[in-house]
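Practice record 12: protein with nicotinamide-adenine-dinucleotide.
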Amino acid sequence: MKVLVTGHTGYIGAVLVPMLRTAGHEVVGLDTEFFAGCDFSDGLAEVPTLRADLREIGVEALAGFDAVLHLAALSNDPLGDLNPDCTYDINHRASVRLARLAKEAGVGRFLFSSSCSLYGVAAGDGLLAEDAAFNPVTAYGTSKVRVEQDVSPLADETFSPTFLRNATAYGVSPRLRGDLVVNNLVAFAYTTGEVLIASDGTPWRPLVHIEDISRAFLAVLQAPRELVHNQSFNVGRTAENYQIRDVADMVKDVVPGSRIRYAEGGGPDPRCYRVNCDKIARTLPEFRPQWTVRRGVEQLYGAFKEHGLTIDEFQSTKYLRLKQIKKLQAEQRIDETLRWIRA
Ligand SMILES: NC(=O)c1ccc[n+]([C@@H]2O[C@H](COP(=O)([O-])OP(=O)(O)OC[C@H]3O[C@@H](n4cnc5c(N)ncnc54)[C@H](O)[C@@H]3O)[C@@H](O)[C@H]2O)c1
């Protein structure tokens, strides 16, 4: 299939694109490149690319594709809170517009990178399946709800959207992110000897490796249309819900000599939920996730050791999305609406 991947040079996109190509798909990327040069390692796939802002593209950019895999977004809560209106502009309005344009251009499939953060504060202790109530606590989470609600009615016999509600990601990527909990805990343990927990350690979080997210995109893309048409799937494994303190224990076990420390003032985190991922396993048996958090911690530790990561590098603009965006603004390379300022 010929597929357009938006956000293809981001943390997940950098791992997804090679997997799609290995499976025989023709990939074109679209990215505005906020994180150009923010590389942990070589290995970004070279694919034909539209360097463009999602908000500016026209229908002609979408002609000829069999599917759009839409990952481009302001990708976390702090970034989303920097300028909530801008978050809605990119993550919600531009995403819905992209879906409409894709449909108009005759693209049959639209895979949206949604998030389990749309469940937000979970009522009670149970495992949340796809029919659970939305309860987002951030602009980021709300934007994901709104896209699902606005794109779903576009579904018809010519256009099949699918919503992949990814758990919180971890794992090594050429475009590593340091603002994700597992990556962050391992990096702190390796570089400082302390597994530094920002909350009180009790929040539950579903966790998934970026390679397994990529496998889910591939499985949905290749699935018979009727199985995925206008469906939402939690992406991860039901067995891979953890309390942050359990992840911290694993990190302590893997990183020699490290010890756990709770940051001062870290209270309970309202973002606390456990999800049930049985639907994707049941519907798409060819989706076989291969990672556990324990193995992911080992992978990250090995990669950080080989790289010789330092705490200064880890806390730099390279791996912290919010810091990089603020730097581009301070240098007047992007404006407050996150549009590039032309020289
Ligand atoms: N990483 C996770 O834990 C996780 C979990 C659930 C969902 N998701 C979703 O998956 C997607 C990818 O996440 P990621 O972790 O790779 O994030 P990322 O920040 O590493 O990558 C996002 C990419 O989108 C691009 N982008 C942002 N705004 C754009 C715009 N206006 N026009 C064109 N390109 C733009 C950025 O330049 C970047 O390369 C996002 O939609 C995110 O919400 C991620």
